[in-house]
Amino acid sequence: MKLLLFIAGVITAMAGCKDTSIKPSNIIGTWELRHYSGTIAGVSKDIPSNKGIYLQFNADSTFKHFTDFKQDNQGLFHVLKNGVTYGEHIYDGISFNDNQGLDYVVIKGDSLIIGNTFPDGVTSLYIRKDKYGNL
Length: 135
Known about the structure:
There is one protein chain. The protein is mostly beta strands. The chain has one domain: Lipocalin. Helices cover 11% and strands 53% of the residues. It has an 8-stranded antiparallel barrel with strand order 2-4-5-6-7-8-9-10. The longest helix has 15 residues, at 2-16.
């Protein structure tokens, strides 16, 4: 009887938990880096189109990063709803390869901004290249 009550309690507790991890469909596709700013030196640099710096997000929560059109990183990503507070604003957070920290992520139309809240952090602006994940 105690075992039955324990199992019922565990099931009830699990049903009450909310998964705040989301899979926004609007992030799926290939994004081209067009600008980044930040670092301790205060860099602000525009990147011309077709320089081969891409982030590709897939529906199975995997990503690939390309530099000079060559893949140099890959793994898993997840987006956490309202996961980052930056100043007085709350943003969704994104994590790559279960990294301990979350970067903030903002998607508006065909623009993707990924940044972090460190004083010398980098903020990157990507423009949608292909919504189907092709380079």
